[in-house]
Structure formats: C-alpha cells, structure tokens
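Lecture notes, unit on binding sites. The following record was shown on slide 14. It pairs a sequence with succinic acid.
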Amino acid sequence: MQSDPGRIVILGTGGTIAGSAASPGDAVGYRAAQIGIEALIAAVPGLQGLPLEAEQVAQVDSKDMSCAVWRQLARRVSAHLSRPEVAGIVITHGTDTLEETAYFLQRVLAPARPVVLTAAMRPATSLQADGPQNLLDAVTVARSEGAHGVVAVIAGQVFDGRELRKVHTHRLDAFSAGDAGPLARIEAGTLRRFRPWPEGHALGLDFIAPEPAAWPRVEIVMNHAGADGRIVDALQAQGLDGLVLAGTGNGSLSAGLEAAALRAQAAGVPVLRASRCAGGPLLDTGDEALPGAGTLSAVQARVELLLRALAAV
Ligand code: SIN
C-alpha cells in the first residue's frame, strides 16, 4: 500500500541518465553527465505535480566518481533527511560505479528513510531512453510507506544497495543481486516487495570530515594465471592503506600473490579477499590467513577498507 507521506528530494550526480548524444538514434556514442536534474525531472510527465525538490550535487560520468563527491553526496542526503517534511531521497547516478556509491551510502548513513539510487543505460536524448521510467519508478519507491535504507531501482527491479552488481555492458537490465535476487519489483507503478528493506548500523559522517588532505589509498589486485604478486610489493613500496584481492573462484590466490599479500598484511596493510566471479559469496573454510569479504564484490570491499582507513585516521 502506498501513501503520500511527503516531499521527495531528487539529487543529480550525472551518468548516462543525464547523457546526451548528437543523434536520437545513438545509444552508445554519447557523453554522460550533460543534462541538469531539473530538465530530467521535467521530461517525466508522471512526476509533474508531485511534491518534489531538485538539487544538482555533481555532474560526473561515474567512471570518474571520487571520494570527494561521495562525501558531498552523503552530506547532502543527510542534511535533507534531517528535514521532517522529507520522506525520501532519489539520486540519479551513472551505472558504472552505482554499486560502490550504494554501499558507501548504506554504510555511512544506514538511513531510516528511503535513499533510492537510479540510473539508465541509454542517454536522455535516445529515442528509447530508459531513464524517465527508472526515475519515475525510483520516486514510487521513495514514496512507499515503510521503505528505508539504500536501494537501487533500474529496469523495474529494486535491489538492496549492498547486493547490487553491474553484470552487463549494455543491456537495459544490466544489474543483478546474484543469488539474493531483487528486493522488490515495480509492476504497473506498484511496488511488489519480496524481502525486507536494508538495515544496518550507520558509521556516520563525522569521521570523514573535514576534507582529508589525501584520501586513503586502497587498491584492488586480481588473481590470474601467472599472477606472481610483484604488483603488491610495488604498491606497498608506494604506500598502501588497504588491499583487496579479487581472487579466483572462492577467493583463491596464486602462491606468489598470497605470499605477497601476507607480507603486506604482516606489515600492517589491511587486506580483504573477494572473488573475481560475477556472482556468489565467499565461503569460509575456517583456515584462511587472509580475511574474506563475504558477499561484497571486490569494488565494494574496497569501499569497506576505505571507510575503515578513514575511521582510523
Ligand atoms: C556512468 O556510469 O556515468 C556512465 C555509464 C552509465 O551511466 O551507464
């Protein structure tokens, strides 16, 4: 059941959903992050007349997403959620780093009201743009009674932000939550929910402020045939605040890479093992020398180590 609980704030950060191409038939050769959030909202007839506010927080192609934008975004979300008349937040974003931003916001804010990320695989100028429907669906989720936590809405599916993975390079339904499946679907404008909204403990924002002179350096190294671990030694020599290993299968590492990671860990570098596989959690065998990242993707494990490094500063 849906009610009309209040005002929704829509924050623009860029992405293909705000992208523009020279020709309406071009869904590939376009520039992301060109169109302002007010214009994106104005292009969706179903949003007109709703109690909405818009704010442009950033205008970036999300391949260039930065810690500084994350911090600013989290601060604006937090500021708007402190207003009693605001029922929820929608964020327009690029698809490429959506799972990282979703995880960051959930860990930092664990919001008691909905924070709904949405995106598009085709630019706003496309004849078959998917952004307008995704934006409308995101607002529907943000206005749903009882909704809370950070979720992502794309192609009619609602994902828990911690489970989100981009799994396809160009299909409209480019996202998956793997074995967990979507948290809900939007069907004919109505939310059909299968699982609870995301819960969690908020780390808060205070430890990220003021603007750090340099953000912690957390790198991802993949295991692959022939991996010898020398890259880990080279990174460590430059100064490393955290290391994620995208292991093969259940997070396994070549002998050389494992030895190098153990050297780094012994020298005080926090390490997490994830998998380079597109789906599936890491299953602990009980005798791991290097801790596993559980259900997190490698890029989300990187965000986790980044937050831990910031919290320790
Ligand atoms: C981006 O991530 O900003 C560009 C690609 C996309 O949104 O699909």
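Take-home: The domain at 7-193 is CATH 3.40.50.1170 (Rossmann fold).
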